[in-house]
Amino acid sequence: MNHPGGATLLYSGMTIKRLDHVSVVVHDLEPAVAFFTALGMTVVGKAAIEGPWVDRINGIEGIRVDIVMMRTPDGHGQLELTKFHQPELVEIRPAVAPPNAPGLRSIMFTVESVDDSVARLEARGGELIGDVVQYEDKYRLCYMRGPAGIIVALAEELF
Questions:
Q1: Is 80 helix (H, G, I), strand (E, B) or coil?
Q2: Are residues 30 and 58 in the same domain?
């Protein structure tokens, strides 16, 4: 099977139902919720989580966290924001990884206006990483540093 980018995709016979959510561990839930609310996401649930099942799935004893589930306006994309109360957060060096670091690269959102979104996110602590650029006549794009140092990519469709 050929992918539009020219890559060949291999079918393993196993399928997934959907991408359910992406989870981000943050220092403080309130500003993280405000940041993603500024993008248009809404809170759909909050919970305190602890107990043997969460310890076992994470391979860590004594976990106690609060989570906030947020959803995109189209109802399909979800983001889980997680605040660890126990155990303490483990700091990673460098604390703010550059865009070319291995691991989760970014979370991309299609927005109505990149300029408006950048202004709203900067008002909530977001930082523009490079410049807002135009890709052909298709998109205006940028990367912003969001809560916990994650990269939030913004794309405005021009077609």
A1: strand
A2: yes
Q: How far, in Å, CA of 31 to CA of 12, rounded?
A: 41
Q: What is the rounded distance in angstroms from the CA atom of residue 77 to the CA atom of residue 111? A: 13
Please identify, among 32, 60, 90, the residue that sits at the C-terminal boundary of a domain. 90
The structure tokens listed for 18 are 């959907």
Q: What is the pLDDT of residues 25-52, one digit of tens each?
A: 999 999 999 999 999 999 999 999 999 9
What is the model's pTM?
0.84
Sheet holding 64-71: strands in order across? 22-25, 78-86, 64-71, 42-50
In order of 48, 85, 124, 150, the CA distances from 115 in angstroms are: 36, 36, 15, 19
Q: Which domain holds residue 47?
A: 19-90
- pLDDT tens by residue, 66-115: 999 999 999 999 999 999 999 998 888 777 777 778 777 799 999 999 99
Nearest by Cα to 29 from 78, 62, 66: 66
Q: In 3D, which of 140, 100, 107 has the Cα closest to residue 126?
A: 107
